[in-house]
Amino acid sequence: MRLLTVIAQKGTKMICWGDMDTTIRQIRAREILDSRGNPTIETEVELAGGSRARASVPGGASTGQHEAKEARDGDPARFGGKGVQHAIAGIHTTIAPALAGMDALEQRAIDGCMLELDGTAQKERLGANAILSVSLAVARVAAQALRLPLFRYLGGVGMHRLPCPMFNLINAGMHSDAPIDFQEFMIVPRGISNFSEALRCGSEVFHALGEALRSKGFSTAVGDEGGYAPALRSAQEVLDMLLTAICRAGYRPGEEVFLALDAAASTFYDENDRRYHLRKSGNKALSSAELITLYAELVEGYPICSIEDGCAEDDWEGWSQLTRALSKRCMLVGDDLFVTNPLFLQRGIEQGIANAILIKPNQIGTLTETLDTMQLATSHAYTTIVSHRSGETIDSFIADLSLLSPFIKAGAPSRGERLAKYNRLLEIASIKQCPHYQHPTS
Question: Any residues with CB less than 8 A from the CB of 359 and at least 6 apart, and which?
C-alpha cells in the first residue's frame, strides 16, 4: 500500500501519494456549448503526478444583478456575442502561469490567487466563468489524486446523507413562453425515505403530469430545465395540475410530496413604481404587501414548503414583510437576493430576512467562496439548497457538492444535463461509505 507523504522542494510543499505529485503542471481550457447551445468553458487541470480532471461551468438566463460577471467576447458575428474565447485566453495567459507549481490540495490559496489576479468585486476582469472552471477542476483533480470520491474530498468523513431533490416540473416565467409570471413550479418528495425512491417519485410524477396535460390538450414540450411548459392560465391552475399528477402517480400530497415555487420576482418588479407587474397573467400590478397576500393564500390552499425569490433582489423591505408573514410556514429562499455571496447573506442574517439560500457556484465564482457561504448559512440556521442553472452542462460537480446541503435543485428528471446530476447521486448512494439519507422534515 502506497503512503501519503509530504516533501519540500525549493521552499514549495508538494504532496505525494507514492509517486502521485499534486503539483499543478498544466491548465488547458476550451469552448464548449451548454444545454441552450450557448458557449461556455471547460477546463482541464493536469498534475505533475499524472492525474487529470475537467470541469465545465453553466450559465443562467434569470441572473441577479449582483452576481459575479461572466466574461463574454461581445462579438455579434460569433455566437451573438456570447463567445468565451477571450475568457479562455485569460486562463491560458494569466491564470495558468500563476497557478503552475502550486499544490492542488491548497484550494483556498489557489482560489485566492485567482481572486488577486482578477482584482475586481464581481470578477469582471477574468470572468467568473473562467475562474470557476479552474477552481472546480482543481478540486476534482485533487480528489482524484488522493483516490477519494469528490463528495468525500469536499466534505470529509462527516458526509453522511444525500440531499432531498426539488424537481422543477413546470417551467414558466423567463424559462418558457407559458403565460405565467412565476418562473418555476416544483415538487419536493421530502417524505420519501431515501434518494433512490425520491428520484423514482419525481420520475413517476413527471410522467403522470405529462399524461394529465396531454389528456387536457396541453403541450408536453419541455423548457430549459426539463419541465413542461403548458399554457396554463394561473399559478393556481398549475398547482392543481401538480396535485393531480402526484395523486395519479400514487403519492400523498402534503405527506410524501410537497410543492415549491420559484417566483423569480425580480423579473417582474418595476423599480420606478416599486410594484410587481404580472404582465403574463392578467397584467396586474401588485404592491409588496399585495404580492405577499397572494403567497399567503397559496400557502394556505396548497402544501407549499418553499418559496424562492418571493420578492425582488433590491426590495429588502418587501423581503422583511414576507419573512414576518411566512417564515414559520415554509422555506423562504434567497437566490437573486443573496447570489451565493457571504456579504449579502450577512446582511440578510443581520436584518432577519429569509431563512434559506440557493447555492450556485457560478454566482460567486470560486469553490472556496461557495463553501464559505454555505458554512455561514448553516451556522445561522439558514437552509442551503445547491442549485443548477438554466444553461447547464453534463458536469455533475454540484451533485457531489450537494451532500453538504439538505436539498438539491437540478431540474426535472428529463434532459441529459439534468439527469447527469441525479444519476451521479444514484452512484453516490450505491457507494458503501455513503449510506442513504433521512430527509429533512422542516
Answer: 340, 370, 373, 374, 384, 385, 386, 387, 401, 405
Distance of alpha carbon 107 from alpha carbon 79, whole angstroms: 33
- Round to whole Å and give the CA distance between 18 and 361: 33
User: In terms of Cα–Cα distance, which of 400, 343, 338 is closest to 367?
Assistant: 400
CA-CA distance, 313 to 316, in Å (whole number)?
7
Q: Which amino acid is at 381?
A: A
Reply yes or no on whether the pLDDT at 72 is more than 60: yes
Sheet containing 284-286, strands listed edge to edge, beginning at the edge strand earlier in sequence:
269-270, 275-278, 284-286
Could you tell me whether strands 24-33 and 39-47 are parallel, antiparallel, or unpaired per DSSP bridges? antiparallel
**Catalytic entry in 82, 360, 409, 421:** 360
How would residue 61 be classed by pLDDT, with cut points 50, 70 and 90? low
Domain total in the chain: 2
Same domain for 132 and 223, yes or no, is no
Nearest-angstrom CA–CA distance, 227 and 12: 50
Confidence (pLDDT) at 223: 86
Q: Between these two residues, 20 and 5, which has the higher pLDDT value? A: 20
Given this model, what pLDDT does residue 441 score? 38
Whether residue 442 lies inside any domain: the answer is: no
Judge whether 421 counts as a catalytic residue. Answer: no
Continuous segment of H or E residues that includes residue 172: none
Is 197 one of the annotated active-site residues of the chain? no
306 and 246 within one domain: yes
> What is the pLDDT, as a whole number, of residue 13?
53
Catalytic position from the list 44, 67, 225, 417? 225
Residue 2, pLDDT score = 32
C-alpha cell at 210: 405529462
Percent of residues in the chain assigned helix, strand, coil, to nearest 5: 40, 20, 40
Is this prediction's pTM over 0.70? yes
